[in-house]
Design goal:
The protein is of the alpha+beta class. The chain has helices at 94-100, 104-130, 145-159, 173-180, 197-202; strands at 30-32, 44-49, 76-81, 84-93, 133-138, 168-171, 203-207, 210-214, 222-226, 231-236, 246-252, 255-264, 269-282, 290-297. β11 and β12 (255-264) form a beta hairpin. The radius of gyration is 24 Å and the shape is flat. The protein starts with 29 loop residues before the first strand and ends in a 5-residue tail after the last strand.
């Protein structure tokens, strides 16, 4: 399909910006460096979750007739597989490069980078939506609405001994509307010094030990309350090949990408390709369910 560029005489390019989904989830989950995947068998890194033991009591000053109980150490492994290759490729004719494109970064590269960033965030969302949760809650079941549901989610994470620091609730647009119409929630404009702009703008409040963040990436009637370690995400920028005319590795919204640009002489057109490798896993401490996160539904669902 041919590209369509608006001429500067038709529209002021600084007057309007494309409506784009803000990418926030990659900065909220557990991230892994690409170095850990170099030479990894099957492009897989295995997370080792430590064994959990309970203290036992031995009778004080007893007659030593009974033996102590020997416990078994059982560690749980969670595989994180680098299995997704996302790309955006655009071909640009000589005529378009000469007459139509005024700002290559704004008109070509930025839309490509944004597409990859959204695609990588979608990978995290797919993992969240398909995960098996130890606890699922319905807002409609709580007499106190979202506030009561949030307290129930907090209790579930506390009971599972999930770390308190860094807990987040990502909410879809319908639940966000429910929150903002509730007097118990007051909108704030920041999450602290040094916060990422997209996360800061999406933050609704911090209550009940959670930073509440709105996102259009997840289902409108769904929310996920989680600790960053509930989901393991890896993102690697492919290497720039020696044969590329031009190439670079870059980052957007905390994500790693590669940009290649070359000329397709037989067709008299330039090519711009942005790509990224990624993988995401749900962290299941018991091997079957994710207890580091709680799924919240507006009325009901899986």
């Amino acid at each position: 399909m041919a590209n369509t560029f608006l001429k500067p005489t038709v529209i002021n390019r600084m007057a309007l910006k494309l409506l784009q989904r803000e990418v926030v989830l990659p900065r909220l989950v557990w991230n892994f460096a690409d170095a850990e995947f170099r030479g990894a068998y099957g492009d897989t890194v295995t997370l080792r979750l430590p064994a959990v033991l309970a203290a036992r009591e031995y009778g004080f000053r007893n007659n030593r007739s009974s033996e102590i109980v020997i416990d078994d150490l059982t560690e749980t492994s969670v595989p994180v597989v680098l299995d997704t290759d996302l790309y955006s490729a655009v071909a640009l004719t000589d005529e378009q490069l000469t007459l139509d494109i005024v700002d290559f970064s704004e008109q070509v590269l930025n839309p490509q980078v944004s597409a990859i960033a959204r695609g990588l965030e979608d990978l995290i969302v797919e993992t969240m939506q398909s995960a098996t949760y130890g606890t699922s809650l319905n807002i409609a079941d709580s007499a106190d609405g979202m506030w009561g549901t949030l307290l129930d989610a907090r209790k579930a994470l506390n009971d599972a001994n999930v770390p308190r620091e860094g807990r987040v609730v990502v909410v879809g647009s319908e639940i966000e509307r429910e929150i903002l119409s509730d007097d118990k929630f007051n909108r704030v404009d920041s999450v602290g010094d040094g916060a990422v702009s997209a996360v800061r703008e999406a933050t609704i409040n911090r209550l009940a030990g959670f930073t509440i963040v709105g996102s259009n990436a997840i289902d409108a009637e769904t929310a996920i309350a989680f600790h960053p370690t509930a989901f393991a995400f890896v993102n690697v920028a492919p290497v720039v090949p020696d044969g590329a005319n031009f190439g670079s590795r870059m980052a957007e919204s905390g994500l790693a990408m590669r940009w290649l640009r070359d000329y397709d002489a037989p067709h008299l057109q330039d090519r711009s390709v942005v790509s990224s490798f990624a993988g995401c896993s749900s962290v299941e401490d018991d091997g079957t369910t994710n207890v580091r996160a709680v799924r919240i539904n507006f009325q009901g669902g899986s």
